[in-house]
Amino acid sequence: MVPLLLDLQRATHATLHHLTTALADLHLSPSELNALANLAVFTDGTGTVSELGAAAGVRPTTLTGIVDRLEQRDLLTRGPHPRDRRTVVLRLTPAGAAVAARVIGAMAELERRALASLPSGAAADFAGVLRALTEAAQ
Q1: What is the tens place of the pLDDT at every residue in 1-27?
Q2: Do residues 93 and 46 lie in contact, with contact meaning Cβ atoms separated by under 8 Å?
Q3: Rounded CA gap, 130 and 137, in Å?
Q4: pLDDT by residue (tens digit) across 33-46?
Q5: Burial of residue 13, with CB atoms counted within 10 A of its CB: 0-12 exposed, 13-18 middle, 19 or more buried
Q6: CB-side exposure of 98: number of CA atoms within 13 Å?
Q7: DSSP 3-state assignment of 81?
Q8: Which range among 60-69, 78-87, 103-112, 121-130 shows the weakest confidence by mean pLDDT?
Q9: How many angstroms separate the CA atoms of 6 and 135, rounded?
Q10: Helix segments in the chain, DSSP class H
Q11: What is the per-residue pLDDT for 45?
């Protein structure tokens, strides 16, 4: 029997390959797609660097390069936090919000296709497994 985590890793790589192929015209890496999608689900497309790093599962040093590239492409802006000058706030630009919407749309379509043949409740069960794995790994 293949360990569940190995199956999850394979599914992750297949999903990333599918998304980068489906969104190839955006010329974004899987990490950049991930960062935009995660930032888009924050309130108003705004979050701190720390929040984005935690949500995207990216180390701060790696996230710096991702944010630099997305900022250079005018997909997000970086600025000071209004109450804590040590904290950096990231905001999707209008162009970044449009790109993030495409990324999330592609994710939703893949998810819809993947779940179409599964029994009702399978997605909720899987979400529970993912939460348990996340908690166990922390």
Answers
A1: 768 889 999 999 999 999 999 999 999
A2: no
A3: 11
A4: 999 999 999 988 88
A5: exposed
A6: 6
A7: coil
A8: 78-87
A9: 18
A10: 4-22, 30-40, 49-56, 60-72, 94-115, 122-137
A11: 86
Query: Which pTM was predicted?
Result: 0.89
Q: Which residues pair with 48 in a beta bridge?
A: 89
Look at phi and psi of residue 66 and say left if phi exceeds 0, alpha if psi is from -120 to 50, else beta: alpha
Range 118-127 average pLDDT: 91
% the chain with pLDDT above 90: 75
Region of residue 77 (phi > 0: left; psi between -120 and 50: alpha; otherwise: beta): beta
- Backbone angles phi and psi of 46, in degrees to 5: -125, 135
User: Which amino acid is it at 45?
Assistant: G
In the chain, how long is the greatest CA-to-CA distance?
52
**Residue 90 and residue 116: Cα distance in Å, rounded?**
35
Residue length of the chain = 138
CA atoms within 13 A on the CB side of 52: 31
Residue 63 corresponds to which tokens in the numbers above?
């996230």
